[in-house]
Amino acid sequence: MSAPLVEAEGLTCHFRSTALFRRGPTVRAVSGVDIAVSRGEAVGLVGESGSGKSTVGRLLLGLLKPTAGSVRFDGCDLATLATAELRLLRRRMQLVFQDPYSSLDPRRRVGAQIADGLAIHDLVPASERPRRVAALLDQVGLPAAYAERYPHEFSGGQRQRIGIARALATEPDFLVADEPVSALDVSIQAQVLALLAELRPRLGLAMLFISHDLPAVRHLCDRVVVMYLGRVMEEGPADAVFASPQHPYTVALLSAAPSLDPTRRRTRILLRGEPPSPINPPSGCVFRTRCPFAISACADGVPPLRPAGRTGQRKACIRDDIDVSAMPSAVVDSV
After folding, report:
1. pLDDT over 90, % of the chain
2. pTM of structure
3. Which domains does the chain have, with CATH numbers?
4. In 57-203, where do the E strands start and end?
């Protein structure tokens, strides 16, 4: 594997919540996350809602300032860059938004919105921009004539293709796709995912794919990072993580994935209790309050990621003597 294009160490982001216009308690959105994405690699970031996935994506893009830790892009520490230097790097990193409806300005033609990056970074002379926009639309499977239309004239899937074209306009090296198909109809999701799968190797993109769609992550990504309550529980090659998860939380998460076979019944892992609040997370391992294998030592310190198995996986667990296949479960209807 090549050297990381994007690398974060000890990434931490804590927010102060508000209540009735007053400062509230601290929300520990991300705590001590290490993550890296190499050139041309797709890394899937998965976990329950509220696990900190989207926050990590925005931290890697420099859209949020970390409370602690560092983010390096192509060897440059984002925190040390002057505004002008950071602006130059912005061209090389882009974001595909979750909601294709609110991410486009309804008052502007889509061609003008796709061309924004070209103008902001002065990449193409004004006279050449329509030709470049037409090429970008063709790249995402849309006719060039669509450049003159407004967002309300398109379906959700078409709008997301337009959003992808806009992100690709600056020829980025790194793309964060934050739940890019969750707002689309199921029949359209596969088409957009197929487009991303085709574009990534052709353009040599490094991609962080944030998603709840575990089958899509398995199909698109080379590696998977599993988060729970702001921390990484497990990471490793996608095939290995899906075939043989090593952390109890990963086992439970994968068991919730729906089966592609409507006649098949699946086994769902039953976790006790509810996810703790990020305002007051448990000490030590944040998963210990729901883990059936937790012992008193799990509360003593945050477990580091360490090798697990023989397939390049790492897990944040102090125990090597547990059999994750023995987790309590129930047979439920496939959904």
Report:
1. 76
2. 0.92
3. 4-92+172-332 (3.40.50.300), 110-170 (no CATH)
4. 68-73, 76-77, 93-96, 174-178
